[in-house]
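To assess whether the prediction recovers the assembly geometry, we first specified each molecular entity separately, as shown.
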Amino acid sequence: MQVELRQRSEASRLMVWLSPLLALLLTFIFGTLLFAALGYDPLRALYAYFIKPLTEAWSLEEIVVKATPLALIGVGLALVFRANVWNIGAEGQYTVGAICGSVLPVMLPDLQGPLILPAMLACGVLGGMAWAAIPAFFRIRFGASEILTSLMLVYVAQLLLDWLVRGPWRDPDGYNFPESRLFAADAVIPALAGRMHFGTIFALIAVAALAILLGRTLKGFEFRVIGAAPRAGTFAGFSERRSILAVLAVSGGLAGLAGIAEVAGTIGQLHPSISPGYGFTAIIAAFLGRLNPLGVLCASLLLALTYIGGESAQVSLGVSDKITRVFQGAILIFVLACDVFIRYRLHIHPRRQPACPIHEPAQAKEVP
Amino acid sequence: MPGRNVLLEARGIVKRFGGLAANDHIDLTVRAGEIHALLGENGAGKSTLVKILYGSLQPDAGTVAWAGKQVAIGNPSEARALGIGMVFQHFSLFEGLTVAENIALALPPNAGRRGLAADVRSVSEAYGLPLDPAARVSGLPVGVRQRIEIVRCLLQRPRLIVMDEPTSVLTPQEAERLFETLRRLAGEGCAVLYISHRLEEIRQLCHAATVLRHGRVVGQPDPKTATAAQLARMMVGVDVEGEGGRRARRSRRGGTAAPVRLAVRGLSQSRGTAFGVALDDVSLEVRGGEILGVAGVAGNGQDELFAALSGEVPALDHAAVEIDGRACGRMGPAARRRLGAAFIPEERLGHAAVPEMRLSDNAVLTRHGTDPELVTGGLLRLSRARSLARRIVQRFDVRAPSGDPEARALSGGNLQKFVVGRELDRKPGVLAVSQPSWGVDIGAATEIRRGLAALADGGAAVLAISQDLDEILEISDRIAVISRGRLSPAVPASETTREAIGLLMGGAGD
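The predicted structure of the complete assembly is given in tokenized form:
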């Protein structure tokens, strides 16, 4: 039997959307084997992981809460990735957004009024943008790979946050715990229902705005062209440098907004672990969602489920909650692997055709 | 020479890609010591057949016999073991390495590098292919690079050499030397399978010919007795207008009364990349109603000249480029298009068009700034883009697989017709085009050239950069030659000769 990948003349529109579903199926199979190998009943474990969180109101609410930062960051990443710019440092932009947005409530806790919240959100967006502008500058000016620079800036941002909440921003009434003071009531994003807050609305607006930007506007067309064929982009009269800066600024700004929305909406103060890796998980959401804003929204909900499912499996079965990362990683690997079928189709020959042994040519050479 | 031993005999070769039969029961017989032409339009199945013979594709049906014995060629190294060598159209050389190092890389790993330099020297001298083994490839002209490929191939003592469009990048003088080498090889009993679009050289050089059309063999004319027109007719299936059209056009032209619509004055540009060419004091003028042809061997500043004209690399001096009397040296491509100019670069995929995008998106690519109905208030009007793409496809006879396919799904010739059509449809006042019919079949090339001529007849100024001298001679009213970044003064096409241009291309004007 011979297995062969044959190139399709055009990308398959069907496979673009079938591929993530196939990846999910493979992830379930992988999960079954994994749980069995760890000595758990696979069906019970998968039920606890993927189904149980969908059956209770509080966990559905929690899925929305966790999907909010994922969607905000993920749509921004869909934009940069479409423009062929590889911002791997959304986690850092998220962190800096949270820090910058917290300047007002932490340093001026007595400040009150309806303007403080918009000011905080603006600071968060600007902070994320500024952090993303650093790799943009190095890429444009020196040709440095934004993959490395943006990733390294994640650690800088995390250490900055760590230093702030253990040092100058530590809550004077906080019994020396590494956390800032609690935000005053005016500095907290109002709740929608239960633990859900208005940040979710921002995420929905961002999804709609980027869907229109990417699909319907000349600007979005420009980013897509620059991403697919930079030389054709220049030929069309678009500036590659401006595009790099613009998409990094937008995605950084959205990550910064996610950061301040999480801190001011869900948490209510700064502490060292404001993110369970949203900035990295959002990369998976972007790819699973086919770099399409609406797709990213769905993928964010699914990935939020993996967070809740991990906790649920830990509670009901005693599985390590590290299983969440394993599942997220498996989904990404499978979806990237399945994406090969977008451009290639699988051919299976029952057996190798008119086969002569490999050595035949050498014999043939002896014939005069 | 039917008396010679049959070296390679392919029978009933079939290769399908999806529903398309790229090779449909092809028979091919190549004898020892014979230079055998393989002729056909783009998409006729030449490359597929050659890839099967070289082992990089497997046929769906059919047999290949080598020296009378049936063989299966599973991969290129098996082909080389048999004695089949290949010289590709696009060289696969490492620019940073020396000639000897490049050759060593292509030989079997156990061949050993000792004595290689001596081998290279002896082979290259024996066949009139002078090479310095220690020279670095990056500094060598294209003709020499091709010699490296040929010597690399000869060192493996092949009995059949496949050459894919070898003269497309050579000056006439370089081509003549290549023919000498090929004749000498044939004289020693080596067979050559020679793929080319250039009918004249096939008549000069080849002993036998096989003509393909739509994946089938349509004839095996004797290239020594057949006329170029007969060969062309066999290839495309219809009469091809060549010289006649040119003569007709010439007589309609002339006169210096028409206004200068495109002017370049004293343009110098440092080279953009390490392997680029600097432009050195280039000046030219193109009047309305004429076609200025810029001849030259690849890599002499054509890309840089085109980029300076299109605005992809703006000039330092704003006055260095003028479109319809307006200085635009520092403007980008979109602003120049708004002045009425249009541009068609050499590379179709990735430069003139985005391969992954549909034709409608590719129509927007160069027209978003000049066609106000395509973009309103920053929003793309997708249905208008689709109808524009449909109009281009119909007007310029682009054969596309479905309604609005990705650019990459089109064959080279059809994509080129689309790319040219996209600009002609705008009726630009100035058009700069690079390699208008590169790698395009004769039928499409004729249509494209006719389109350029019609544009000029309508009063536009057309500047055509081409490495194909036949094309330059066919379409141009005046001809200039670019060599090492310098442009020779333009002379009327009727007052120059192929030899004079060839000499300038070889650097005689420097």
